[in-house]
Amino acid sequence: MEQVSRLSLWGEVIQFTNRCSHWTLNPQVSIPALQELTVCFNLKFETDKAASSWTAFMYSHPELQTELGLAMKERRLLVWLFGTEWSTTRRINLRLSRWYSLCLTWKYKGGLALYIDGKHEKITADTPPPISRKLAPNGMLTLGASGSAVNRNITSPAMVGKLSLFRLWGRERSEHDVTSLRCIEGDIVKWESDNWYTPVCAVFSDSSLECEWSVYEVRLMFHIIRLDGKNNTELYTARDIAHTWLRKVLPSTFFLNRVSVFEVPRSRKKDSFVNERRLVEWSPFIKSFDCLVHVNVIPSLNVATVKNMITEELRVIYDDPNGKLKLHADSDSIHSTPVESFSAVTIIPPGVVTAPSPVSTITFKTITSLKTTSTTTSVSTTEASVTALTTNTPPNISELYFEVKVNISLTGDSDPGQTVSTWLNSSLPDDMMTVLDLQLLPKTQRRQSKLQSNLYTTNKVFVPSVSRESCIFQVWVMMSQLDTQEIETQIRHLLLTPYNNGSVSIATEDIQISRILITNCNAETHLTMKGLFAWPDTQGGKNASQPCPKNPLSHATRQCKLCLSTHWLASDQEDCGLVVETIPDLDHVEVTAENALDVVEMIEDLLRDHSTLNYQELATVLNKLEDIVNLSRVTPSLGQALINIISDILESDSNLVPFTNTILNITEAVGDKMVGYEGSFTLVAPYIAISVVDVVPGEFSSLTFGVSSDRAGNKPEIFINRYPFNETVAFIFLPSVLQHSFPQNSSTQSPPRVKFQFFGIPMLFKNSQSGHALNTFVVSASVTNASSPIKDLDEDVKVTLHHLIPNTLDRDVQCVYWNFNKNNGHGGWDDDGCMKYNCSSQYTTCLCDHLTHFGVLLDVSRTPLDPANEQILTIITYVGCGVSSVFLGITVLTYTVFEKLRRDYPSQILIHLSLALLGLNLVFLVNSWLSSWGLYGLCVAVASTMHYFLLASFTWMGLEAVNMYFALVKVFNVYVPSYILKFCSLGWGIPLVICILVLIMNREAYGSHLYTNAQHSLKPALANSDDFCWLQDDLTFYVSVVAYAALVFLFNIAVFVVVLIQIRQMRVNRPAGIRSGLMHDLKGVTSITLLLGLTWTVGFFTVGPARVVLLYLFTGLNTLQGLFIFLFHCLMKENVRKQWRIHLCFGRFRLDEFSDYSNSGSVGVTAKPKSNPPKAPVPSLDSVKSSSTDSTSASSDSSQRDSSFKRPNLGLFMNSLALPRAQNSTSVTGALPSPRGENPTPGWRNHLLGQQEKR
């Protein structure tokens, strides 16, 4: 693009060579005495020699030494300030053909800073720097010249390279400013041609140096030539013409923020036309105006490009569409400057002296976009701008801010936001009022478009849509001195004026106008997890910026929201790194009264990601909470935040026992130091509540404090001086004698205050008394600034607490208080001064002669397991029950599907026993999950079902013994009709009757058990969970479970002994030479032991020193009982394996259904048969064989018809034993031969005798 701007050097660079050695500052531009400054410039080199040593600039005073300078010598940057030389601590290697930005900042009585491409570079002085003073004024500034040309003592060479954008500001810029505001123009020395004296050196364009920016001020003078012969162009008319002209000629991405117009004195008009050398002479029909335009370029463009575009577009003569005038801009006067932010008020261009006030117009759309580009970065910047602007503001102009709320009805289809902004822009006068920060509030009512007969009726009538909007915005008013009421009336009148642009109409109502008195946000410090930020005083509507503590090259921003109560919004710290990342990092945070709430917010954020805190983390958090309470003013909001943190700690899965006293002291201190309330105040959070009540000495008669909550204690509700009701879990009555302990009235003491506390976490309080457990929530009362320790009261304090577990057995309870000195200072329960007054199953009332933390202990004399063993046993129990459930299901399925396996009684009894154990295991596995639903009826159903299957399992174990007794002992003269039916009636009926009786007599015996090891003698894991539905009543448990099991197992033990005796007798009578293996005998005994449930008797001995070992043995054996049944009665039985291979296998593993396998399924050792076996003294084979039942062969029916009695078959139990066989007799009466010479029934005794026959 053609270079058209005659002043700006943006986009231009100097090429310093031997011929062009330096530039000097124009003598007409003087540098004042400065107390702070910033110098920035860009440079580039093409050779290593040129890049290693050069001089950028020197500023000196004729009467003084070198005041300021910057150079490089042997790759070290050198800075001169007041004659002192500073140098970088490292060598700087500048890459060739690359632009570098260098900035130097200094402040009076402050430090000197050097930046390369926005990055701070450390520099040190070779000698102690002189006493701080101001920079000498009216000195000489040179660019590129060697140091010796200015000061003979400086030997840095002249520069051979390119330099551009040299600027000087009269203030120290921050590191953030150096980086983010690098494209704005200087305010003392500018990169403009009229600032420099360049007799030899010329500049040239360099497209490689670009700087993009979006905020510009444009100053120019324009002339309006009237073609209608009139000379009545008023200031307001000129403003409107200029606004229309600028809107039309500037690109669409150039948004106008403000257009201000001033009248130009007659003396300057003619001069401008002479300078233009136009063929136009001044006449009365030409009128000139000065103009100041604020332009926002979105998106940002290169500064040089923007300057050229503006000059190129504005120098073209503009013809009014009506043909009545022409507008011509003086091209020499067009001056575009990139600025940090727009001025708050209009600045009259220098050299203009006019009496009339300026007239401005503001584009509302531009105001909205401007908010994202302009920022306020420091206090000094804001103050300097305001001071300068106030100086130039005409004295008869006032600035006021108002906030407006209005309801709007829009008729027509349009975008509400765009329509409202257009309406405000056209309704409010641009020269007096500026709309700021328009916000559409949530819709109060919106009626959708209504169309008659689907958009068209027969007459094709369209009903436009009507919507209601509520909006709020701020108005900046600049106008002659008027009182506030007049301005509000004028704004209201303008907003009530109907608006219709042809497509949309607007009507307003409920207009509320309020003056904004506070327009600034005060400076404040803000401590966050990303560091400490010091926000400066900032004007409303502006943004403040601060470098990030951890990564200073990034910045955080914060907006000062302009409104009725102008305030800081939340800061944007997205680009900042965390300084406090973990809880241990809090140790490096110092708590002060000012940052206390910030530290609380940090702790809340850290705890949000921690479900468990270790010892060190708890210590760190609690130490910080103590510091906050001690150093800060505890307001209700801060107190609530502290209580929320304590609640989070109580809810965590942390070991709180070492910190109980600390937590109690913190909550006590919160109540002591609470301020900012009247009468009373309550802080409530899950599991904790604090109430403070101020009392008037002499008027105190009594005071009550009550708490209602759910069963878990996480939803407490507090009531003061109200009678307790059904949901009350804690209640304290304070007697009137307590007033004698109140502090006496004096100027140095606070008024009496009573504090109440509630804790819904019993685990916070360690139980120091063996055999007792805390059975209530904890509640406390205390008095702030008591005149003496409150103890030995003449009238007792009455405390009523609700039991967590109903005391239905009238077990011993104990009223206790928390003694902070017990357990080596960790605290513990003590009963001194407290006594039980009244007790029921649900409540206990205590009387105490002092104030502290109160609770009720319940006697749970059974010693619970330690947590580690309890957890291991729980895991073993659940795993064992799961495994047993699987194999019990396989066992039941096998014996049910294969009909040949369930023809005898033992197999049918085994099926029922397996079903009972399977039900018990399944209910146990889902018990905790179902009880967690918190439904009492469901819990009773689960507990009673589990009780039923446990009793059914015991009963079927007893029936196994009965069947064994019939088979081995009562062999003769026993007839049991409907044998299995009667067994089923007993096995499933007796447990049902017992459970029904329990439900009828004491339904509350079933429920959720809270304490561990309540029934450890049978199933310790039953009580290992706080949410486990089981028998709560000990009497019911011992009668219906323990006593019943004891009777069953006593009978089973007796039968087991008889069986062993019978086996022993048969061993004695076995033929000579027959031997049985020890493992076979052991396997048989083990099988009988498991079927009779004798392993359950281990639970009766889980007391004393061997308790833990026996519990492990008990849990392992009984939870895996189903697995053992599968091993001994499925996997190790040959006839079961045969059925599997016949029906489930393929190929060479499959068996034919008529394979020659023993039907008995014995796996015992069979002796070689002898030709003439001797007779054994055993019962007659005729009798024995005639007693067999349920034969597996076709001959069993005839055998049963000839039998004199029926007896059960026991072959399933004893098939693993290798026992002596009975001798066969050659004369057998009443017995039918079995096909293939096999026994007609697989009964245990018949099986043994049949095997002896084969011998």
Automatic annotation (TrEMBL):
SUPFAM superfamilies: Concanavalin A-like lectins/glucanases, Family A G protein-coupled receptor-like
Domain called G-protein coupled receptors family 2 profile: residue spans: 521-580, 873-1133
Keywords for this protein: Cell membrane, Disulfide bond, G-protein coupled receptor, Glycoprotein, Membrane, Receptor, Signal, Transducer, Transmembrane, Transmembrane helix
Chain ranges passing through the membrane: 875-898, 910-929, 935-959, 979-1001, 1035-1061, 1082-1103, 1109-1131
Topology of this chain in the membrane: Multi-pass membrane protein
Residue ranges occupied by any GAIN-B domain in the UniProt entry: 708-864
Location in or out of the cell: Cell membrane
Keyword Glycoprotein: yes
Gene Ontology BP terms: adenylate cyclase-activating G protein-coupled receptor signaling pathway; cell surface receptor signaling pathway
Major localisation: membrane
Domain Pentraxin (PTX) positions: 8-211
GO CC, one annotated term: plasma membrane
UniProt feature, compositional bias: Low complexity: 1180-1198
Keyword Translocase annotated: no
GO MF annotation, one: G protein-coupled receptor activity
UniProt region (Disordered), positions on chain: 1162-1208, 1221-1255
The family this protein is said to belong to: Belongs to the G-protein coupled receptor 2 family. Adhesion G-protein coupled receptor (ADGR) subfamily.
Matches recorded under PANTHER family: ADHESION G-PROTEIN COUPLED RECEPTOR, ADHESION G-PROTEIN COUPLED RECEPTOR G4
Protein name: Adhesion G-protein coupled receptor G4
Organism annotation: Eleginops maclovinus (Patagonian blennie)
Record lineage: Eukaryota, Metazoa, Chordata, Craniata, Vertebrata
